[in-house]
Amino acid sequence: MSPIINISRTDDAPLLANVYLYFRCTDNPQSIDLNCALFTSPEVVVQDGQYGYQNLFDALLDALYAALEKAGAPNLNIAVSESGWSSEGGNAAAVGNAGTFYRNLINHVKQGTPRRSGRAIET
After folding, report:
1. Is residue 102 within 8 Å of residue 85, measured between CB atoms?
2. Domain tally for the chain?
3. For residue 57, is it within any domain?
4. Which pairing describes strands 51-53 and 46-48: parallel, antiparallel, or unpaired?
5. Does 27 have pLDDT greater than 70?
6. Residue 116, domain member (yes or no)
7. 3 or 28: whose pLDDT is higher?
8. Taking 80 as the threshold, does the pLDDT of residue 15 lie above it?
9. Pairing mode, if any, of strands 51-53 and 78-84?
10. I want to staple 80 with a disulfide (CB 3.0 to 4.6 A). Which of 30, 39, 104, 123 is the partner?
């Protein structure tokens, strides 16, 4: 990871990350609530120290921010270069769920994550 971090720093470029939630939900439907993945959970689902998470997207992205901090790159920006939801082929794969995910993702990224609140997520 260090060489990639160094290139991003040198070029003043964000680290590109793919964040797919659908696969995490279908791989473990007993542990991952669909509402958490679709940005529709009305309350905090996971508490990690001072950070509370209502959605899986923020939890995954903040895990990457935390890893970058430990790797010595606390100010490196992340750009979500790809995300998505399957519209067929699995338990939660449905056009309606895909539409919900995309609409809510577009609205959500403006506010940032709990770890980087108020900082829009380049997506």
Report:
1. yes
2. 1
3. yes
4. antiparallel
5. no
6. no
7. 3
8. yes
9. unpaired
10. 123
Distance CA 25, CA 21 (A): 6
**C-alpha closest to that of 55 among 99, 17, 112:** 112
The conformation of residue 74, written as its DSSP 8-state character, comes to T
Complete DSSP assignment for 3-53:
HHHHHHHHHT-PEEEEEE-HHHHHH-TTTS-HHHHTT--SS--EEETTEEE
- Is residue 8 situated within a structural domain? yes
- Could you tell me the residue range of the domain that residue 68 belongs to? 2-108
Q: Residue 34 has what pLDDT?
A: 86
CA 35 → CA 4, 94, 102, 117, 122, distances in Å?
34, 14, 13, 21, 23
Facing residues of 80 across strands? 17
Is residue 79 situated within a structural domain?
Answer: yes
How far is residue 36's CA from residue 70's CA, in Å, rounded to a whole number?
26
Q: Report the distance separating Cα 5 and Cα 47, nearest Å.
A: 28
